[in-house]
Amino acid sequence: MWSETEVTRKLGVQYPIIQAGMAGGPASPELAAAVSEAGGLGTLGAGYWTGEQLRDAVRTVRRLTDRPFAVNLFVPEPYEVSEERISRVQERMRRYRKELGLSSEPQFPKQFAPAFEEQMEVVLEERVPVLSFTFGKLGAEWMQALKGRDVVVIGTATTVREAVTLEESGVDMVVAQAFEAGGHRGTFLSRFDEALIGGMALIPAMVDAVRIPVIAAGGIMDGRGISAALTLGAQGVQLGTAFLTCRESGAHPLHQQAVLSATDESTTLTRAFSGKPARGIRNRFIEEMADVELPDYPVQNALTREIRQAAGKQGRSEFLSMWAGQGTRLSREMTAEALIQVLVKETEKAVSRLT
Amino acid sequence: MWSETEVTRKLGVQYPIIQAGMAGGPASPELAAAVSEAGGLGTLGAGYWTGEQLRDAVRTVRRLTDRPFAVNLFVPEPYEVSEERISRVQERMRRYRKELGLSSEPQFPKQFAPAFEEQMEVVLEERVPVLSFTFGKLGAEWMQALKGRDVVVIGTATTVREAVTLEESGVDMVVAQAFEAGGHRGTFLSRFDEALIGGMALIPAMVDAVRIPVIAAGGIMDGRGISAALTLGAQGVQLGTAFLTCRESGAHPLHQQAVLSATDESTTLTRAFSGKPARGIRNRFIEEMADVELPDYPVQNALTREIRQAAGKQGRSEFLSMWAGQGTRLSREMTAEALIQVLVKETEKAVSRLT
User: Fold this and answer.
1) Which residue(s) pair with B153 in the sheet?
2) pLDDT (tens digit, 9 = 90+) per residue, B233-290?
3) ipTM
4) How far apart are CA A264 and CA B187, in angstroms?
5) Parent domain of A336
6) Confidence category of residue A114, pLDDT binned at 50, 70, 90
7) Which residue of B196, B201, B265 is in closest CB contact with A190?
8) Does the keyword Nucleotide-binding apply (chains A, B) (predicted)?
9) Which residue of A has its CA nearest to B242?
10) CA distance linking residue B114 with residue B55, whole number of Å
11) Which DSSP helix (H) or strand (E) runs through A173?
12) Nearest by CB to B178, which of A198, A224, A351?
């Protein structure tokens, strides 16, 4: 039976289908709970949340379901704060601030990213069932603390080398984030542009190189994709874009609309919104910022926040970061429960058609 | 049964496995004949051949097998001959000519690419069973002439839009060339960098958009990849890199060795060798030429020919165009017959494991 894998056993879920931790809104408590309630693994996209926000979200999920769910975090990386790059990009973005009616002088953020320690303490205190993370690996002390509380730990790798490193660090499973995937690249050992590997090549190579289960991510939108990932050797799949257009998703309606009408040629990799390469739907901000030398992540992310928030309120999709993978042509609008049911039926059909 | 598809029926082959038309040596008559003899569809990589060379190759294949085979051609595109770019790149490449002991003044090629009409006439006169092509679509007159001789015609698409255009032009099947694929990008309707779509997203989207069979290409190296492509909806697969390291392949031994020892991070897209973006194993020539504004394809291809040929003779892999897809970690050294047999067994295993 295709749905019985090491991933379903370890996670205690019915189907090896994980909803990706789309930070910044889409992966809301409502979406996570709906996915878990329907038999998949819902994920809170907590990368940008404070400890307090995360705790509230965890409790909301627990009110809505008693099934397992995950929290997804961003592992902090060293970064430079270059005053010169900051003032150049601020200067350049002044035109957008004006268009959006924001003060010409932006607030200089007090903090570029939320405190990771604070987030981790909530994960441990609340005994979150599953922690997934991206942008690096966790130190031995965190890993020990997580194991001590029986938290299942899932790392993110964009290359075989990263998967091996994560396995050595003690994670229980690893997500193979292929080139097709939407949102931020999880690359942490290579130059990002040398770690862009399509799923057809990445998944089987990673499966051969590690003993822990591999979870395929990138471009998977329907049962055909799930069946393909499993036959490539993955023991589970992680879908972001497919869940982004669900009713319970916290994604901006314009973001959802853009995904629903996008083609296979609509997305691109950009550093414009956050300073870190991510795949999203091409728009004016991405195009006009393409030639600017940007501050590091998370500095640039903090610097564009006011613009993105104002654009959201004013319905200006040309300034929104509309993350999406390459599978947008197959996106659908329905509830998360209906989507999980459709995915399961389609996977069964795809599997039986082969034989 | 997974191996019975519209592709096997139309092509008259046992397995829906096509060997890609790797021009410039690898896709030799010996390789094509061995693949066809083993039940797949062998292909002559004729893109750079004169009509006469193509005729000789077709006759060699026919001496070795009476099974169907294909010829792969490059559809000519408009290009500019910029004297300025040519002299700048010649100036830049003088250092390599010196290292290789070539005269400092390169021969200015009389012709940048072989005559397409001449190649096509051989295809028609010899009644080649299958013609596959890339870089564009064929005009209505060619399509009519091919149909008149019962030639099965296969186009190459890197986007859904290109697949639809090819279907409208009358091709019998379309290759979905995903981001993972080695060698030249077949893109002809978009900017090449907006047509880089991973197989997990490209294959099902293309299958949904056309009525003709889709043949998946890019990163497929073993039975898991074949099974994945078929469950995504493809009715056949095209493998290049997997056949490049076969005994019968005409690839340079250093090229084969590089593929066998490459990792998932070894390849890149480059215009350095031909002026057209292609995926190959990163080497010194690619790295050092990255910042040069190059002449169009096929001008740059003609300008690097002497360097590549001398490098081949002298065993200098730093100047060879070592095309390869992203699946190199799974490459193997065996005969084409053995590879086909292994692929079939592995596909059966992958299919049965799902159910």
Assistant:
1) B131
2) 999 999 999 999 999 999 999 999 999 999 999 999 999 999 999 999 999 999 999 9
3) 0.97
4) 14
5) 6-76+113-251+330-354
6) confident
7) B265
8) yes
9) A201
10) 14
11) strand A173-177
12) A198
